Amino acid sequence: MISERQFRHTTDRAEAGVRSLTGFVSGAASIWIFCLMLLICGDIFGRTVLNTPLQGVSEIVANSIVAIVFLQAAHALMSGRMTRTDILIGWLEAERPFAASLIRIVFHMAGIFVFAVIATGTWPKLADAWIENEFFGAHGVFTAPVWPIKACLFAGSLLTCLAFAIQVLHDIKTLAGSGRVAPLKILHTPTVQPRGWGYFAAFAVLLVLGYLLFSADLGRVQIGLVAIAFMLLLIFSGAHIAVALIVLSFLGIWLIRDNPNVAMRSLALAADGAINRYLFGVVPLFVLMGLVVDAADIGKDAFRVAAWLLQKIKGGLGMATVAANAVFASITGISIASAAVFSRVAVPQMVANGYNNRFALGVVAGSSVLGMLIPPSLLLIIYGVLAEVSVGALFLAAIVPGALLAAVFGIGIYLMAHLRPRLVMQSERPTVIEGETWGSAVTKLTPIAVLVLIVLGGIYSGIFTPTEAGAAGAAAAIGVALARRKLTLRRFWNVLVETGLVSVSILMLIIAASMYSRMLTLSTIPQEVTALFTSAGLGLYGFLLVYVAIVIVMGMILDSTSIMLILLPLALPIVPELGGDLVWFGIVTVIAVEIGLLTPPFGLTVYVVKATIADRNTTLGDIFIGTFPFVIMMSIVTLILMFFPSLSLFFR
How far apart are CA 78 and CA 416, in angstroms? Predict the structure, then answer.
């Protein structure tokens, strides 16, 4: 019989071993991303300079993305980067760790089930690809065997199962030690009873209720509604969002078709085919570019130049933060990156020059949303994939709204500084930004202009596809960082690893959303919802008001990608029926999603700012108060864009 001490020691050693293994595999996949960047850049050079494009690049990238995601999934889990919301589980981990461990065991067992099913569905495809010598590409042009990609998918799924199993062992270890108390911490009672059985019992009752509902003789619409309801419940409880989407979609398809094999085939197909497209290469490449730009301190330079130009204006550093965020957004496309960068760069500078701390934090968090609106926006790319509309058209549509939002932020800061100066400034001493000249400003802005020209100029001129623009932009950013001696080998390795972790969290959600969309289609819920809104007489704008309100509420508890993946399959069929344009609808959706990320109780951007700043006396409440004016401004801009679609369709 193994003792508790031996169990804990064995678990720790197993966890360390699996963490090392997953880290090694993930590192190899991160290098693979860099190799894809080089391959695409080589194709661009061969096509434009030598007039001899490389063959098979799109097929290699499309298949590689699938392999990369599954090779990195296990490390994302072990690193705590597989997307989930901490609303309930976070509180339980702090207050009732015993109950939290029990609930986490359920969630992790669900993860084992999901990836075991994927592995089971992939194995026959792997065997067939090996035996039949299957290939992708075209005979006489380019061919490559399929089996290595299937092998990566299969091995990655098994490795993720192992990672989930290690998490279960970790939770069991926590349970085993829940009755132990360090002797110096307590004077009279040697042990305590584990607390939290009530919470776990309530959670178990809900699971039993779900089982009973699924077991009842329900119609396909009712099955779909129950699946959505319990999916939201699991997400709220702290389940990994991709796992919750897949499990409930799996059960929904099983019950609707009354055949578990159909559900298994659907999951295997989603795992293998949902992201097997050249376009999805844009995700890791834009993430890589954004992280390299951060490492090169380009955001810091943009802020210093903007601050130097605007320092004489009352509230000028706030406007400079907005301007720098707009510039940074035009070469990164990730709002969370903007929030992290300018929390480090702009907040200390503003506070040192007499600005109110709440205002400084609020302007950083508020203006960071420009990163998801001003092209090239990662969120617009995801919307384009889900809505099946042109990413280039979305980028063009976002130019005027992005400029409008930045202008409204600037005007709002100017008015606050003059009408309610105490909200902006703590003292009236003049702002002084020293050490800048017109020559230094041009030197610092030149790399930014080059990157904008390569990425946006390449897309708008038709020279690059979005994926090619991401590769060229990432390569150019690496060149800039190396020229400025900001990118050491170790720092570059950290950037590559972080690129993989960020990318897999997004792409795994897209795989889950593919399964979710299949379940919704079979349930006929989108058609029923479309008929409901069409017959209700609300019209397009009535529907939009309801939709935006739901998006903002969900934004309080979920990340941007998850909100879009959950709501868009329901909303997209309605918009054309009511006479709306899907490109315009995408712009409205992105701004509404970003509003939710600034609102309490769980606005994600606010938490990023809080985690980045050095002042630990600043509370989340301070940041939420600081962001409130920007939420109002964003709401006004959202209404303007809703009722004046021509602003989003100006370049059509």
Answer: 45
Of 273, 286, 269, 276, residue with least CA distance to 64: 276
- In contact, 110 and 195? CB cutoff 8 Å: no
Q: Distance (Å, rounded) from C-alpha 409 to C-alpha 15?
A: 48
> pLDDT (tens digit, 9 = 90+) per residue, 15-26?
899 999 999 999
DSSP state letter for 125: H
Q: What is the pLDDT of residues 188-231, one digit of tens each?
A: 444 444 666 676 777 778 778 877 776 777 788 888 888 888 88
- Which token pair is 54? 């490389």
Task: Please say whether the beta carbons of 307 and 342 come within 8 A.
Answer: no
Cα dist from 231 to 224, 226, 235, 245, 555, whole Å = 10, 8, 6, 6, 16
List the structure tokens of 607.
């938490």
Nearest Cα residue to 491 out of 291, 279, 633, 344: 291
Partners of residue 180 on adjacent β-strands: 191
**pLDDT tens track for 228-250:** 888 888 888 888 888 998 998 99
At 55 the three-state DSSP class reads: coil
Weakest mean pLDDT among 143-147, 423-427, 449-453: 423-427
CA 400 to CA 579: how far, in whole Å?
A: 22
Q: Give how far Cα 16 sits from Cα of 27, 242, 269, 498, 500, Å.
A: 16, 25, 33, 20, 20
Whether residue 246 contacts residue 269, with contact meaning beta carbons closer than 8 Å, is answered with no
